[in-house]
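Before relying on records like the one below, remember that each one covers exactly one chain. Contacts with other chains, cofactors or solvent are not represented anywhere in the record.
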Amino acid sequence: MPLPTTATVTYSPAYTLVPTYECFNRCAYCNFRVDPGEDVWLSLSEAETQLRRVRSQGAIEILLLSGEVHPRSLQRVDWLQRISDLAELALSLGLLPHTNVGPLTFEEMSQLKAVNVSMGLMLEQVTPKLLETVHRHAPSKVPQLRLQQLAWAGELQIPFTTGLLLGIGETPGDRWATLEAIAQLQERWGHIQEVILQPHSPGQSQVWQGATFAAEELVEVIATARQILPDGITLQIPPNLVQQPDLLLACLAAGARDLGGIGPRDEVNPDYSHPELETLTAILAREGWQLVPRLPVYPKYDHWLPKRLQTLVQQWRSTLQTQVGDVHSN
């Protein structure tokens, strides 16, 4: 029998498809991007090969994570169509797409809603001062632009994930303000499923020389987030960036309850491999936690989905229910 909900920690069995690594932003801490024109876009045939393989290995969520094509680029329409086609391909194979590809227009979000069970965009930090430092060459990191997308997601009834990037030059007050901004959006729209609290972890490809976010501060931020954010939002931490077992358990004690998508590779932090599920299960069991899989959309949002997506989601819920019970049934 599964443990009570209060003793569960969730994760999403996931795989990341990258339509392109090309990105017109140049965030100083990025370990993902290449310059526009330096990447071959992922083809549907190659994507199908990957998806069939990972489906047989237990993946459920397909995270579509892309570099950003400039809004005024002649390739923008083709880029969005490729993302939509990849999501449609995932659905045709019985998998559940979740798209996070940077700021979109209202119309672009509406188009992708039809082929995604949820979507996401990191808010990172709302302070504009980062536009003078790590975001100096990243036009789409303007806080108001990202806040607008979060609001549009609520208006469109898209189940949504957002989050904070910690340790990129912000102050504790900046983090507080970012959490309050998310809380206000949630109070109005109620569409935010999860907030990721991602500690900056230096990689080999970034140009910025910032340090790793301090472990003790991460626990404090989680506790603060749990105070500020509505109870309906789940706090997520990436276990490949919280590698010390005692720190991971301290994060759970402070209020984190989800470990995000776990798969073969973290495309955003490629220098940090995901731990094995068996390892995580053993660590969590030390304090009585049970690690259980979840879907990329929580049950309370199922009725927001197009009917054909609802049908597929319900099939997956039945599958997971027979395994571990539905830990997000409320």
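The longest helix spans residues 172-189.
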